[in-house]
Design goal:
alpha/beta; Rossmann fold; Dihydrodipicolinate Reductase, domain 2; 2 domains; six-stranded parallel β-sheet; four-stranded mixed β-sheet; 8 helices; 10 strands; elongated
Length: 234
């Protein structure tokens, strides 16, 4: 396995966690960019320093500009920032037109990607049963800005697509919880609860590094389900 060269965009908690874990995952951090504005102006071919791929964890207002700057510089980008997905259709067209590569996900935990599939199958089966209600509860640390979380939104869409009706989401912000997502299926005489609990922020850093390695050599727009189902390039 060859060493992948990574540019980090955003040196907050996630950026620092990725930097700390990179060497253990045969990745080399060749650039650390912490842009102060939403234009992506700090991101250039020179500042990316020959990176094979960039990993972006910044702010919702900054993400679209950062993505465009990476694509213009010819650098694939993994995007962990949430709260900007209203721009995703336009950015998808831009990335594809440029022959670039982007992988965007609200959550980089491999467990969450598998959890989404488990939830989809449960929702499909419960959707056939009369009188079953579904509810999603997500809990994060008090500093998390978006509510519901991007992961909760994605899980809710999975359930809604399988059951054919919207489900409510309850958001809890407390303490230092990295992230817990619980999907409840409830009927008159029984209840099923499916839970994913992140114990350490490094689970997201590890998943982002896996996604970054997977994206090198590809084109188009992808998500974590693609990482699960499509073989990595050698």
């Amino acid at each position: 396995m060859s060493t992948v060269r990574i540019a980090l965009i955003g040196m907050g908690k996630m950026g620092r966690a990725i930097a700390q874990l990179a060497a253990e995952r045969d990745a080399m951090i060749v650039a650390e960019i912490d842009p102060a504005n939403a234009s992506g102006g700090a991101i250039t071919r020179a500042s990316l320093n020959g990176a094979d791929v960039a990993i972006e964890f910044t702010q919702p207002a900054a993400a679209p500009g950062n993505i465009r700057a990476c694509i213009a510089a010819g650098c694939p980008i993994v995007v962990g920032t949430t709260g900007w997905y209203h721009d995703l259709p336009a950015l998808t067209r831009e990335v594809e037109a440029a022959g670039g590569a982007m992988l965007a996900a609200p959550n980089f935990s491999i467990g969450v990607a598998i959890f989404d599939r488990v939830v989809a199958e449960a929702a499909r089966l419960f959707g056939r049963v009369a009188g079953v209600d579904a509810h999603l509860i997500e809990t994060h640390h008090r500093e998390k800005k978006d509510a519901p979380s991007g992961t909760a939104g994605a899980l809710a869409r999975t359930v809604e697509g399988a059951m054919g009706r919207p489900i409510p989401i309850t958001s809890v912000r407390v303490g230092s919880v990295p992230g817990t997502h619980e999907v409840i299926f409830d009927s008159a005489f029984e209840q099923v609860r499916l839970v994913h609990e992140a114990r350490d922020r490094r689970v997201f850093a590890e998943g982002a590094l896996v996604a970054a390695r997977w994206l090198v050599g590809r084109t188009g727009v992808h998500g974590m389900q693609d990482v699960l189902t499509k073989e990595p390039h050698e």
